[in-house]
## 1
Amino acid sequence: MSDNSFTNVGFSGNNRYSSYYGPGGRLIFVDSALEAVNKGSTTIGIKTPNFAIISSQIKPTRPLVEPSEKIFSIDDHVGATGSGYIGDILQLIDEIRLHAQKHSVSFETPIEIGSLARHISSYLHTFTIYSVRPQAASILIAGKDQTGIQLYQIDPSGTYFKGSAFAIGQSSEIALEVIQQEYKENMSVEQAIQLSNNAIEKALAEKPLIATGLISLVDGKFKKLEAPIMS
């Protein structure tokens, strides 16, 4: 379904919900947003008890145009990335940062990663209630709080998941299959980065440029790795 379908939504007669729902009761808007995510950069999150990494393909751009930033620092203890429309990703990153800053100012403590995920989940869910276009982006959040290393995925519908590995974007099913086959809870940071790179490479059937961020128990600080990594 193309994005032009958004312009056809409205209320008509007594069937005010006909433009929201498709066959099987699926939300048309959300399905369209998920289609956009599935065409976005292949993006990976991997977590162990000691660290989490988030990695994303850097798509080629036109000559003389710098690629969009893919790995974002939210606060000292948390970072994020995403796949989908870059404008929507950037808006969601701003919302996550603002919520984290408000919590820090109000309570003088770093926000819990789960609380941050629930907030952006609620924020995204509000777009599914009204006749507006949902944010066409899925977000991965990685961080450390008092409960340890955390990794979350939040989809355009507002659904969120907590886990040890996620893959979103183009050919994410292939990437996730690679991770599921080779993931080990006791792997090193270097092994996790290599696994992430291999998963993205196999999903795309090419050697892409990849940006990566890391959060570990050692210092509890999220950091973007110095330079994009060629797999």
Note: The helical segments are 28-38, 86-107, 113-129, 172-182, 189-204.
## 2
Amino acid sequence: MRHVFTTMGTVASIDGPADLMPAVERVFEAYDHRFSLYRPDSEISRIARRELALPDAGDEMIATYTRALAWRGRTDGAFSPHRPDGVLDLDGIVKAEAIEQAGHVLDAAGCSEWTINVGGDILARGATPVGIVDPAARDTMLCAVILGCDRRALATSGSAERGDHIWRGGEVVAPRFLQVSVLADDIVTADVLATALVAATEEGFDDLVERSPVDVLAVAADGTLVASPGMRRSLVGDRAAG
């Protein structure tokens, strides 16, 4: 059964048992309540206003921040939990963490097949075909991929979703790619690396793809598609080049 609700400024679509949906929604509400900079009462908003020092924040905040810092190191700074103005912004990881935790809820209940789609970032249990949107035509699918037992997660990032601006080294730069989609074993890896690869330099992009256990489909500014070998194998109908 499909359950749809709004969360984190986007739409969540969950395929799974109806009786588990209240517990799934509570996961997302808890993350939104703690991490949303659009909610003045959230813990992270209190940190941004300097009403709460980060070391005094709750265990969940510290754990997510620590995880984000680890990813900043792994991506050589292409992913960062800090905005250029210094404000702590964990939006690049918290949606994926919420999806991850919601998946744990479904697994713990013994659900053998389910799909969680939040704003186009997807985690699935069981073989699942999913679409990747065309950044030049948001109502059109660019291609479809199969999520399976190893590559269970798909995340997409780019100027089509985030606006035509990428921060690198504190400066706005023109993105090399309009959109990057990442297949990975887990949704946090997929989501973080999709963001990092959009922001990476050309050398940094190639290095991250080579040393990460992921498959990648990128849409260049001229519309060219670049796909890693693993992504090619997952595509349903191959348009990719490169």
Note: Residues 2-236 form a domain with the T-fold fold (CATH 3.10.520.10).
## 3
Amino acid sequence: MDYFLHHGWAGNVLYFGKFYLATHLPWHYAPFFLAATTPLAILILAMIGLVVAFKKILRGEKFFEITLIFLWLFLRLGLGILPESVKYDGVRQFLIIIPAFIIFAALGFDFILERFPKYFPKIKKWKTQVGIVIVIFFWLLAEFFGIFPFGGSYFNEAVRFAFPNNLDKQFDFEYWGSSYRQGVDWLNQNAESNSTYCVPIAGHLIGFYSVRPDLKSDCSENTDYLMFFTRWAGIPESLENEFHYREKDPVFRISKYDSDMLLIYKVK
């Protein structure tokens, strides 16, 4: 508990279009990101499962087991709600509760499979159940491929409806730099010979990829290309003054959900 309440990281976090210190984020940051990064299909099933589990407890069924799962889910989530706790990186700090959340979703799924066929008595039960499984499977498959291969930037249908574009201006949309792979590929294929490039955010990640031998990293005024993923909270304030990149159109961009993930500018 002491770790979560007194973590030393105090960087800036973009949340609903505003920058906050990680030590001063609103209490709802944790529950919001748990909900916002869960597909609606699973979220709905989990809500049904929570009700089913609560009713089981009231009936004295599996009291000990279900109580443990409730504690697994809500103790860590509760720590994230406390005003003293440091919150950042979206749902990453709460991954420990995902298995418990999925258990409740499974209870909800089982409830739907048993109850829903009763509304269609003329259709054989197994056919209705298979139909439900197929619908949910392809629903989740569509969500998976909608963001692939950048699963760490997933936001569900409700968030995308509320913010149909520019999610990167509302939340830390791209954080881990997975888009740098495609950015390096673009530089390798399109950058002029003996060019220089600057990666001002998490530049060490470029070391995981093979950069063309004649391309050199250089963040001085002599750089030719500026490349960064759109974690706006981490972009140095001096970057615009030094390169005036906002006055230019990017020569390459990666976008998902009509929101930018990575930008490359030719600044010289």
Note: The chain has a mean pLDDT of 91.
## 4
Amino acid sequence: MLTAVGVGATIALAGCSGNSQEGSGNGENKPENTQTETESPTENTGGDTTESQDTETPTETGSQFSTEGNDSELITRSPEELVLTESDLPREDYSVTSSDGTTSPQIVEFYKVFESEEGRLENRTRKYDEGDRVSLAEEFYDHLPRNIGGSIVDQTELDIAVESKFLLFDLDNDLGYLSYIKFRDANAVSILSWITENEPVGLQEIGSLAVTLHQSWR
């Protein structure tokens, strides 16, 4: 069942707006909309839907998950170098089952999917190479996640890169749990989407993985 649940569609191009910022962690984050865009976990594309009823409020900042980002220093490495490798994973039974990249005049993107009998982890990174690159990345970050069907049972602001956030979804139709982290550094945004059927992946594990990933960027 887990391989049929598409987490790849958490990526969708957002418009261009926002201002550049510089800092460590997410101290200058803009408030996120209370109406998060969501997507059905069985579809990789399609229109936005409204999230299930959500009365949760963000928990206190997960300050133990902290790395430095800088909007004044653009990310120049290729997206293939900005995603996880098997050696980064905390669980040895996961292996790469697919990977791919896309390129447009403005955007380059790459993803990897890691799977085992217990779950499915996708890491996708998008980098803007033209235009107002930091503002475009900010806009994209602000509109994530998109089209994830389910209710939020936990959410925590993090201090990874320039801005970052953890969300835990209880997915619709008994599809399990989705642990989700997004973070942005300058002109690049990365997403970790980890689906498990019986027990959710906690912030401690996926947060540490996000720290490992971002530390490899610069």
Note: Residues 19 and 170 are 33 Å apart (CA to CA).
